[in-house]
Design goal:
DSD, oxidoreductase, 9-stranded mixed β-sheet, TIM Barrel, 3 domains, metal-binding, 8-stranded parallel barrel, 2,3-Dihydroxybiphenyl 1,2-Dioxygenase, domain 1, 25 strands, 33% helix, alpha/beta
Length: 599
Amino acid sequence: MRTSIATVSLGGSLTEKLTAAARAGFDGVEIFENDLLAGPLTPEEIRARCADLGLTIDLYQPMRDIEAVPEAEFARNLRRARHKFELMRRLGTDTVLVCSSVSPLAEDDDALAAAQLSQLADLAQEFGVRVAYEALAWGRHVSTYDHAWRIVETAGHPALGTCLDSFHILSRGSDPKGIADIPGEKIFFLQLADAPPLAMDVLQWSRHYRCFPGQGGFDVAGLLRHVLSAGYDGPLSLEVFNDVFRQADAGPTAIDAHRSLLVLQETVGLARPPAPVVPTGIAFAELVTPDAEPVSALLGALGFARTARHRGKPVDLWQQGEARILVNTGPAVRRDGTALAAIGLESPDPEGAARRAEALLAPVLPRRRTPEDARLDAVAAPDGTELFFCAPTTPQHPGWRADFTDTPGRLPPGTGVLRIDHLALTQPWHQFDEAALFHRSVLGLHAQESVDVADPYGLLRSRAVTTPDGSVRIALSVGPAPTEDGAHAQHIALAVEDVVAAVRRFREAGGRMLRIPANHYDDLAARFDLAEGELETYQDLGILYDRDAGGEFRHCYTRTVGRVFFELVQRDGDYRGYGAPNAPVRLAAQHTAKRLTGG
């Protein structure tokens, strides 16, 4: 189906919004009146600009506080409407949104509302305009879609129909099943938005916290199915009021918006992009650094060995068990030092995974490689991390591993690291919801519930995306506001057989763990009945502990190098979390360490 987006959903000037919408692949736009009034372009120039970009203007909005008012007030409303209809003729659009009144002058009189909307439609028809009447969730007398439809049905005017808005319907808990009883030709327009479940005033909820379909908690797909069953064949349009989106660059936001509609259409069977190819494991994590010495020292203390070097690039492969870390000292030097720049995802069908990504607006990144290099397609996650799709390596089919030449030498005994347990990526503050949708839709990962973690300077949001069996776990997080350098630390969590033994070997090799305050262990003693001596061991080694109905979790952290630190984790039983109750302790300890070291 055709796709559209309200200009209020994007940040920037009207020209920037239109350009972003076109480049993201939208077919049309809703012109929000404030965007037109605040800009220098005439309606004719906006019309021409949209035509040049291949965009239709599907809706002009909003017209407010029109119906069920005293006669003198309605006469003023008609005069105002005439001016807007003339403007719409200049814009080249034929549908106007009329919101249910919130005016204190409005009367609770459906017959009067229907009669006045019919008169409005008479005037609109003279200009070739259709009136789409929408129930605002906070409307003074009309606040539900079925009530709005009854008024439209009573009016019985061919130029008067209804506009359905998923937020206004679902935020009130209305049952969307009744939509199927509205004739499709009388649904003049459909606006879609999702939202997180919040207990707050619906007006504030609407104005500040809407998000794109698939990023919140509403069943937008279920509502859309009812709209389609009614026979609606107009555009699927996004109307999202969100303070964060409007402060972000319009280009990436528009791509995220269009991706959400592509996924929504796939969910309801309107589109068939290539099927998701769920990764089966983590092939490697790649660090970029201007100085390999601190990273090499840390990896060596962790028991990793430098086992190979890339044939043509300054990239070393460090390995222990099934955990593989690439250290890249190439020209992509970061001002903030060492950073996690790329993740290799083992995929049963790398080419299919790349096709899926491109279909969902995540094109394969250009990559410099020689004819001898293994084909290795990568796409960029919203935070810029490169995600490589890798075929599983075997002696017969080494895949990406064939690009590396083995380094001779005896392997160290190691610290018992088995594999990469999970990766934690801090997102740009305005792209947290986008990141969750990206990893869920492009990679086929399952998004767990979002949690809030106390940071010394506010609350940090975190949400994990995983495969069902836990072979791939990525924890996404974002702080309450932008940081000075634009990001927090990232980390690589390593699964170990025995975390106590691993830490002791790490310390014997010269490694330094993050210092955990004694108060944490006093709290552990109150919360858990641990074996004799166990708590003292954890305190001595800096190990944190958690337990749930599934099992136990022991974990600890190295000092940070650049923007990266490592976590050693031991999962016992069926523990599937990430030690969230301990996160505030870790964050505070890292802030303290940074303050003491000055970096």
